[in-house]
Records
---
Amino acid sequence: MSEQDYGFDTLAIHAGAQPDPATGARATPIYQTTAYVFDDADHAADLFALRSFGNIYTRIMNPTQAVLESKVAALEGGTAAVATASGHAAQLLVFHALLNPGDEFIATRQLYGGSINQFNHSFKSFGWKVAWADADDVSSIAAAVTDKTKAIFIESIANPGGRVNDIEAISEVAKKAGIPLIVDNTLATPWLCKPFDHGANIITHSLTKFIAGHGNSMGGIIVDGGNFDWGKDGKYPMLSEPNSSYNDIKLYETFGNIAFAITCRVLGLRDLGPAISPTNAFNILTGMETLSLRMERHCENTQKVAEWLEANDKVEYVNYAGLKSSPYYDLAQKYTPRGPGAVFTFGLKGGYEAGVKVVSGVNLLSHLANVGDTRSLIIHPASTTHSQLTPEQQSKAGAGPELVRLSIGIENVDDIIADLDQAIG
Ligand SMILES: *Cc1c(COP(=O)(O)O)cnc(C)c1O
């Protein structure tokens, strides 16, 4: 039986990993080293010229990182992957490979707040321009395409949770424009959603969240779908044109369906530098072995909490795509049939005061700015992440004064509900 035939749970444990050839160690060791001894001078020269592939320096490649990369590529069904220090570093490397100064990309407004900041502010200083479109209105994405547009960026399960995007419809827009669709699959993980099956070309993750799962390590990853023609019209010169920092090699011509991942590694990681530490790669690998078990429990608990909240008379609304009342229910059945994740929002009839009361009153839930931990997490955006905005601006940003966001953990669900019950009062 080849690795391709194994099921998801088997791959999550075994893909990319072998017993250590030097010691027999069964778990993947933490290769805590900066550099690697060359066999001889020819070997060194071949590595530096990309004539052969191997470890040179941990900023570019490391054996612990490599197991993580193979595992995530296998679970997503991609051709190759590149791990990075964080989810945001993965996004930076993706756009670095695709955009020149003056180029544009389209992103949907319904994104992780940190990505909105990265795209609006820091990317500006690279001369990259983001055009915002509405994820619920695919025609607004098509309307934003110009001759400078080089990519479309969306989330599968979109922030602040409880929404699912129509990946296939959006991928049609990308195909028509001859540009790649990038999907941030962080909130879904490949266990809930497989964006490459629906037309995505590149997947990014914050491994920091559900994939690592324990709230103890930062990481990110880029997965290459191997399904985009980078050579067609000279739109992506970093991939298609001779590269003077590698003896004028043409990366797409040389590396074919793994060329995007190679570009992010040998130019992105080499020159921009956001490598994941071997120890964090190890922690994330350990977390991944139980990914499907955790996601199953995350979704089961979240469905029960969302249903309980919907029946609570102090609650005005619940935004969770697992509820029949959600406008995203049908999309969730199609794209995330095992459940639309564990992050969602609800609104309290008591407005701002009631939101502050809940986050102040919880005991088991942790009041903090993160998602995707084994622990249940809660935040009231109007008094924290969105406190600088007016109430009208908060509502427009989908973070009105009454809104509370939850990331449901894998504790006993009765304990989670009891804690929310006493905090809502
Ligand atoms: C957290 C997050 C990111 C950023 O990842 P970091 O690892 O925090 O840099 C990107 N996208 C989504 C959906 C996230 O939740």
Note: The pocket of pyridoxal-5'-phosphate is lined by residues 86-88, 112, 114-115, 155, 159, 184, 186-187, 206, 208-209, 218, 220, 371 (CB under 6 Å).
---
Amino acid sequence: MGLRGSDAVVLAIVLGLCMIPQGEAQLKYGFYRDTCPQAETIVMEEVTKGVHNDPDLAADFVRMHFHDCFVRGCDGSILINSTPGNTAEKDSPINNPSLEGYDIIDNAKTRLEAACKGVVSCADIIAFAARDSIVLSGGFGYAVPAGRRDGRVSRISETFTNLPPPTFNLTQLTQSFASKGLTQQEMVTLSGAHTLGKSHCTSISSRLYNFNSTASTDPSLDATYSAQLKHDCPQGSTDASLVVPIDPPSPTVFDSSYYTNLLVNRGLFESDQALMSSPVTAAQVRLFSYAEFIFKKRFAEAMVKMGHIGVLTGSVGEIRLNCRVVN
Ligand code: HEM
Ligand SMILES: *[C@@H]1O[C@H](CO)[C@@H](O)[C@H](O)[C@H]1NC(C)=O
Ligand SMILES: *[C@@H]1O[C@H](CO)[C@@H](O)[C@H](O)[C@H]1NC(C)=O
């Protein structure tokens, strides 16, 4: 007995629904259209104000979204304060003191609570702020699917096991991103976020002074650049606030120069330069270095995908009233 036409249509719809990737299905474009139509405008205004006062903050919001999503999913756990019994993600040496901008998220949240009480999650605020920061820096804008809910747990230990360190090689980076459902190509694309911002000298001191038993400085680093870095990051300096730009040619502009640097051995971290260590990833680096349009477009797509990692939706989790404390 064959299928009737109407059965076939129903079957096609059911199969079609099954094929929508799990994470993709849960967030929605225009999630706050009815419940808080001004949500994205409020976030955009506060981020714009913050970045206007301190252009370095754009990099922080992009990194904040990454560090939120890779640890327990994009659930706003990066924003939770430590308590007497628990040291939170934000107090990990990976995030503190380098990650800033929490006060700007608070400003947005305060206005959102006044406008639409208990509706807009802290996790969504971070996702919007990351997108707005990319746009303010010259990257492409993109629609952010929303509806993330906030988690209630934030543990320092999980930052060490989930965030890749700057010493990772290509295999390790690829594995780290694969464990979050991201491809190697997306890893190479998202690393392009290092077109923005700065690094503390502490993050590169081993590469400059303590590389391995035969070479104190990583010999794969361009010699002129390593001399410059050693000048800016003196060995044994006790000044923990010393920083260098990750993409010296244009640290506040979202462009392709991060990839151009890699072509001439000027990636700041071993994890950056590692993208040149296989033919496939090196080809992607070369493409992005001259095709800025393609880089910006792929970056926007990869950010949307990263924003789906481990999200809490529906009635799971909560809408935190203060992003720094669980309800
Ligand atoms: C691929 C693996 C990655 C590694 C190993 C890595 C590592 C690092 C390190 C060590 C720093 C410097 C922190 C400091 O000392 O101040 C940094 C900064 C930064 N990272 Fe990454 N990162 C990676 C991927 C990403 C991704 C996927 C994004 C976002 C999509 C991102 C965005 C940023 C930004 C914007 C900064 C500059 C922060 C600032 O100026 O305050 N990173 N990263
Ligand atoms: C990457 O690092 C891991 C762990 O140290 C090591 O086992 C592996 O051989 C390295 N891979 C490459 C391609 O260097
Ligand atoms: C030190 O690093 C260089 C450059 O990566 C490498 O050629 C050399 O084999 C390494 N030496 C040791 C002992 O690991």
Note: The chain has a mean pLDDT of 94.
